[in-house]
Amino acid sequence: MDQQQKFASDQNVARFVGALQTEIDPTRRTSLRSLLLEEENRLGSSLEQLDKADRYIGECQVRISRLVTLIGKLQADGHDPRPSERLLKNMTELHQLLVSYRLIVVDVLNRNKLS
Question: In angstroms, rounded to a whole number, what is the distance separating the alpha carbons of residues 92 and 60?
């Protein structure tokens, strides 16, 4: 993969991750997950991809933590937490997807190291 293709794939990954954070339509989410996995597969397994996965996972964890706090405040103040709960569900699913991807990258890197 040349640098231009890599750049485009990196941008697509960022766009799909962003869209998965807020998309609520199940059909669209399924499509976005598939597109994300295709781009991640195109990028392969490298230390650079591992670093990017770690960064996305870290950002997800921060957002999840903030949402949990926000939902607690909304409930305590008598406000409807459902929109925030939907966003939390999206973030949790995205986090799981990114962690799974990270495990695949680590596995490939470990197998390549042993070869």
Answer: 8
| CA gap 109, 5 in Å, rounded | 22
Q: Which H or E element spans position 103?
A: helix 82-114
Residue 47 neighbours by CB distance under 10 Å:
9
Q: What is the pTM of this model?
A: 0.88
Question: End-to-end CA distance of the chain, in Å?
Answer: 22
- Residue 77 CA, chain-centre distance (Å), reads 30
| Exposure string for 12-31, b = 16+ CB within 10 A, e = fewer | bbeebbebbeebeeeeebee
Q: Note down pLDDT in tens along the chain; length 115 residues.
A: 788 998 999 999 999 999 999 999 999 999 999 999 999 988 888 999 999 999 999 999 999 999 999 999 999 999 999 999 999 999 999 999 999 999 999 999 999 887 6
Least Cα distance to 92 among 52, 61, 54 occurs for 61
